[in-house]
Amino acid sequence: MQTLTLGAKITRKRVWTLFRLQPAMYIGIAVLAILAVIAVFAPLLSSLNPLDINPLARMKPPSAEHFFGTDALGRDVYTRVIYGSRVSLVVGVAVAVISVVLGVVIGMMAGYFSALDMLIMRIMDGLMSIPNILLAIALMAVFRGGLTTVIIAIIIPEVPRVVRLVRALVLSIRNQPYVEAATAVGTRTHKILIMHILPNLFAPLMVQATFIAASAIITEAVLSFLGVGIPPQIPSWGNIMADGRNFLSIAFHIILFPGLFLAMTVLAVNMLGDGLRDMLDPKLAKKI
Question: Could you write out the three-class secondary structure of the chain?
Fold first, then answer.
């Protein structure tokens, strides 16, 4: 019993020490965890359908019946906001994961194989010149609009940024003595890339992934606000704000609450990214 009590005290002390060193990161993690719970259990947190229209309850202010008020069609803003969190989190996670995976594969090829470097980087430069919004409009005109199309439209401009980061890291790592020693003893190329180079990319890519997720969430909201992103029948924070922009002077709450959730989510992701950067690179933290 005493051993368990002592172990619990040590664990609490360790947790408090970590929180004291990186409070912003743990606050960001807590906020994102709460948002994930809200997104998963949205049907339990509201008994209303986000698509239900009630003309008799148009643009009602926040009340006990409608926590965040109602919009111009009488739809419950609270219900639409918590369901909209699903879209933002899915877009952020999907874009970050897919962009990093594709960027790692392409960037390692560009950084390790000199013959492919010029070709790959010129293609990446061309892709980086395409604005996200224009690309989304073009894709919406060619393909059926939806969540998948929006994710693809955001991924394409994000991949080159990851490629440039990975390429720079690989160029510095491949000249390290342990990589040259592995090459000298005849280690196959794919083993060198997986066993010696890939593990050294983990720390900067973790930080980059958080920034990509935050950028993707903002981009999705902007595209939906402009009417070229998520279809109007799917509740998202950008769609909710787009519906309320014409009634800003008489029903400010329609834009207020989805805007607060959007700002809180992006801030939490950035706090997580900054905390990871400081934790994984203490020298940089001391300079800052």
Answer: CHHHHHHHHHHHHHHHHHHHHCHHHHHHHHHHHHHHHHHHCHHHHCCCCCCCCCHHHCCCCCCCCCCCCECCCCCEHHHHHHHHHHHHHHHHHHHHHHHHHHHHHHHHHHHHCHHHHHHHHHHHHHHHCCCHHHHHHHHHHHCCCCHHHHHHHHHHHHHHHHHHHHHHHHHHHCCCHHHHHHHHCCCCHHHHHHHHHHHHHHHHHHHHHHHHHHHHHHHHHHHHHHCCCCCCCCCCHHHHHHHHHHHCCCCCHHHHHHHHHHHHHHHHHHHHHHHHHHHHCHHHHHHC
Give the pLDDT of the chain (288 residues) as one tens digit per residue: 444 454 445 456 655 565 566 788 888 899 999 999 999 999 998 888 888 888 888 888 888 888 888 888 888 899 999 999 999 999 999 999 999 999 999 999 988 888 888 899 999 988 888 777 787 778 777 777 788 888 988 898 889 999 999 998 888 888 777 777 777 777 787 787 788 788 888 888 888 899 999 999 998 898 888 888 888 888 889 888 988 888 888 888 889 999 999 999 999 998 888 887 777 665 544 444
Which of 2.60.40.1080, 1.10.3720.10, 2.60.40.10, 3.30.70.890 would CATH assign to domain 25-287?
1.10.3720.10
Give the residue extent of every domain in the chain: 25-287
